[in-house]
Amino acid sequence: MFVPAYLKTYKKGLLSQKIEEAWSILEECNLCPRNCGVNRLKGERGICKAGYLPMVSSYNPHFGEESPLVGSHGSGTIFLTHCNLRCIFCQNYSISHEGEGKEVSFERLAEMMIELQEIGCHNINFVTPTHYVPQILKALDIAIKKGLKVPLVYNTSAYDSVRTLRILDGIIDIYMPDFKYADSEVAKKYSKAPDYPEVAKKAIKEMHRQVGDLVINENGIAERGLLVRHLVLPHGLAGTQKIMEFLAQEISKNTYVNIMDQYYPCGEVYSDLYLNRRITPEEYSEAIECAKKVGIHRLDKREKRILWWI
To answer: pTM for this one?
Structure first.
């Protein structure tokens, strides 16, 4: 019988240590590679704009996620406000850049997890969690005592510090990073993060070290492992071939990958000559072939689903 990693850690008495370690980072915040150094315990805010309390934009059973997360009852997504990467084309721009959402207590964040579990969601899916790791851990401690028992999903841009990820070892069941760019100049232009490609590689290696390849049970539901997303950008700007080669050669050819075709111009890119259009069918087909040629064979199959919200 599947038991989430965080329950094992909690029973060993190790969760409190992880909470303490994570919270100590906020005094001079370097949770992520931005290394802003602000004191978030006193309400100071860095590049991500996050403060002391967690901010939530929405929470709901989501049916547009990857097939092994969705199942029959949806993935229990909690959309956290702000982002440490802040891509100028972000398709959740109002959340990541404009701060759509409201601060909630740790008790309320825990209640959201329990509510999503009670309506049948197969997992709790934290969307853009990097800048709220300490807050998530604090709320998780409360949720465990209320009966939380479904897998936790860490749905991230992959702009994550290995130090922070190691705190999450034994907490997160499913890591779902989006490997966005292979080229540092592209990452610099669109996310002001020239170190992104190397940071993402180190982060994904650490994620895979912790949880391995994606494990899917007899009902088709993911229980543990790594699931990588890759958003195809116009004109090959994402560097799909290099990213697929990295996954095949340095992670695993058995990596479960969702190559996404839903890019559309939004945010600040309307005047950009390269990103001011959707991708073409040919660009998407080429991305799929890049994966297959290097031996990546577990590709997510997208299906149209009806969304319902709470």
So the answer is: 0.95
